[in-house]
Amino acid sequence: MKLIVIIFLTLVAVSSSAQSSRRDSLLNMGRSLRDAKLFVEAIQHFTDAGGDAGRLEIANTRFVMGEFRPALSICDDLLSHESIYSEDAELLIARIRECQGLSRIARFKYKRLINNGNADAAYYFALMNCKTGHNTEAVQLLQKSIQLNRNNIDAHIVLSETLINSGQRYLAMLPLMYSLLYSTDTEGIRESAKQLEALWSNKSHIVLNLSRQKKTYVSEASERAEANITDWIRNSSCSDSRPQTECHTPELLAYLKANQENNLDWWQIVYADFFISICDAGYHDALVHHLCASLDPDGTRSWIESHEGNYAEFLTWLTFQK
To answer: 314 CB contacts (<8 Å, ≥6 apart)?
Structure first.
């Protein structure tokens, strides 16, 4: 009898595992179809997946399609029976209210989710503030989002763009370099690499009076570092045809390493310490060529072929740092 029970439980477990695997496959396929704007097909896959997970994805798809009413209906139902996806539904409601122009309601819902430690809410609320020109609040929210979830590469990219728009070139380089290391979007990597190169080379837009132009979201330590690096960027240039990134990135990393005790703040902890650890691990050159891959593919390929072992070690090391 005991053996029969064990066999029965085993079969149930196997069946449950197979159903879970099929559901995950349907959800992943549905998300891919949604990304490709094949909404009808995506909704069919989410319907086949079933459960609250499938319903939430249908709501997300309706949201992307601009069909706010059915999306809200699904979210309200998930909240009414206290689904495990209630917080995701609450976040989607906040995004819908924002799109509907109900900013006050959206802000209230975003803030409540952020107080509960929701990284995505901090990210989307930051985007809302970027759109309305509230850069100070946007940067603080992006910092919060990254602190809760460092793997959201989009948050690093938006943070960099916000800082660029605010004249903080040095600070903008760090999240941009970080996102270049982890992004899987080939087109995005190419554009980010060009943006990083432009930050190094376009000296006419450097903010010269940082000490007089106090910014509430930049610590004194970061502001001093920005001013110091601005000085040598302004007075330096590449002596050959190599990308500016390849010329100046080693200097930036050397500066961070030499001043790691002087700039201890959020920027230091999240970004500078990360890049300093790359130097300490001996992957300084591999980092530079990895960043230059979209700017100078021939030169980078030549270096990688000559240092294949070191580069492979760097990529392996990188996978464990995320």
So the answer is: 278, 283, 286, 287, 290
For residues 56, 57, 59, 63, the Cα torsion angle rounded to the nearest 10 degrees is 140
Letter string b/e over residues 36-50, b meaning 16 or more CB atoms within 10 A of that residue's CB: eeebeebbebbeebe
Confidence of residue 89 (pLDDT cuts 50, 70, 90): very high
255-263 long-range CB contacts below 8 Å, 24 or more apart? Answer: 255/225, 255/228, 255/229, 259/225, 262/221, 262/224, 262/225, 263/221, 263/222, 263/224, 263/225
Read off the amino acid at residue 212: R
Nearest to 222 by CA among 130, 143, 138: 143
164, pLDDT greater than 90: no
Alpha helices in 36-85 (DSSP H): 39-49, 51-65, 68-80
Of 115-129, 131-145, 154-168, 224-238, which one has max mean pLDDT? 115-129
- The answer to whether the CB of 59 falls within 8 A of the CB of 46 is no
Q: How far is CA 151 from CA 76, 264, 319, in A?
A: 29, 22, 12
Q: How far apart are CA 307 and CA 58, in angstroms?
A: 48
pTM: 0.83
Name the DSSP class of 261.
T
Task: Give the count of beta carbons closer than 10 Å to the beta carbon of residue 263.
Answer: 20
